[in-house]
Amino acid sequence: RATATMGEAPEPSPQAPLAVLSKVELRVSCKHLLDRDTLNKSDPCVLLLMQSQGQWTEVDRSEVIKSNLNPVFAKIFTVDYYFEEVQKLRFEVYDSHGHAGVGTHDDDFLGGMECTVGQIVAQKRVTKPLFLKYGKFAGKSTITVISEEISGNNGYVELAFRAKKLDDKDLFSKSDPFLEIYRIDDDRSEQLVYRTEVSPRAGSGPRPPRRLPGPTEPLAPQVVKNNLSPIWEPFKVSLNSLCSCEEKRKLRCVVWDYDSRGKHDFIGEFFTTFEEMQKAMGENKVQWDCMNPKYKIKKRNYKNSGVVVLLDLKIHRVYSFLDYIMGGCQIHFTVAIDFTASNGDPRNSCSLHYINPYQPNEYLKALVAVGEICQDYDSDKKFSALGFGARIPPKYEVSHDFAINFNPDNDECEGIQGVVESYQSCLPKIQLYGPTNVAPIISKVARVAANEERTKEASQYFILLILTDGVVTDMADTREAIVRASYLPMSIIIVGVGNADFTDMQILDGDDGVLRSPKGEPVLRDIVQFVPFREFKNASPTALAKCVLAEVPKQVVEYYSYKAFPPRCPQPETPDSNLSSPQ
């Protein structure tokens, strides 16, 4: 799918890949739904559809809630949010019919609502009327969608609950208990975080294998049947959903006796916080009295309506790009410049390497645009600058990985300006030649990245910017080198300079399919981004940088997540010696 660029570019290229800003969680509830059933109330389910190229496609659906005209759905819909893209959503509510599933007949349709992701994100809570076909109101029916951004430093928690000696609410059998957890927000409203949906399991006995629902099946609520001491299946929720990443935020937990007609009987409740829950980590357990306030008032010797125990709690941290950067991970930037003869004689004004004192050439424009972004993430501001495809002094033999400062022991330049100066000074000293081989330079940077990988720390990530005026000659070797590099902490950006036909270069960019080595081995990660510079000729210089660097944060996180390397702990800052001591 097309995605939106991060930030605003004055004149972005229409073909520029756009970057995901974040993921958004959507929670849905309805009120005053139409009653389609004769004997019972409707059993509503919500379908989420997204528009792509004018067509509506179902992307997800909620569970079915039995006999309820004011449902609060436990299902959380997760969608990607793109700042500069109009993402149209449609929510359709249907009356489900048990095993027949959710129908699409007019008689089953309880109403629909259209909006955009941007509207929901901007307003955080959107309540709109539901409409039947032909724009007719579905009575007084409304649907409310609440959005929450999944923050970059978010993680998730896995919880395992059980209960003991719950009150029996059934006359001829034992209760069928399920648990709901609500987060209490700053405005004192309650937001459903999770409703237990597990396969039936009595006590601690064996559990039948769980069959996951298909993509078009509703998630039907299931409870522990006929058991006053249930063990609920462990479940995962994001910390953002559970407590808005605030450990002291109050949570309300409610235990119900399930009723197939939707008239669930209240067993009891208790209040807690995520801070208190964390006492259950390791071998410890935490328990709460499950209280029924009415019984507490009416019954003199009332103690509780059972006990709820948190058996286990596991925190899974999800690290963001900024977590790694703020933890001290450095971005090492290397530029590789094409010095093949197809660029034209640098002394000729038609050459792609021509140095115009009043206007930088395309090589310099691309180098500066990308390099100026990367330099903020490299503390020593020293960048490796390499060349390929030229005959170099003193013997004027063809080289495909030479330092443009002609120092074989240290190919680094001081800052972006140092790279520019080395580039300009090397042009008169070399002979443009060929062929366009880039595999040697990819392999050279990969060797350095491999040494870094052995530290088993998230300390350095490598970005290789290759500037070339044509399709690479050593395509097979290049594909092999990229597959090897995909296992290392590095990303590759290729910018096509000039007006050549770069069609064959698109194969290196995995956007149209998985790049494979000549032997058929796929890349571990998509690490290559290719763009022709001509698409950005009339755009702001920042548009190119935003386009080619948009995928880098995701690639960094993917690599360190795959290797299970956490961010390093930031080093404590030393006091500034220039600060005067307090008087």
UniProtKB/TrEMBL annotation:
PROSITE patterns: C2, VWFA
Family matches, as SMART domains: C2, VWA
Pfam families in UniProt: C2, Copine
Transmembrane segments: none
VWFA domain segment(s): 332-531
Start and end residues of each stretch annotated as Disordered: 195-218
Record-annotated C2 domain positions: 2-130, 137-289
GO cellular component, one term: plasma membrane
Position of the signal peptide: none
Keywords: Repeat
Stated family: Belongs to the copine family.
Protein name in the entry: CPNE7 protein
Species of the source: Anhinga anhinga
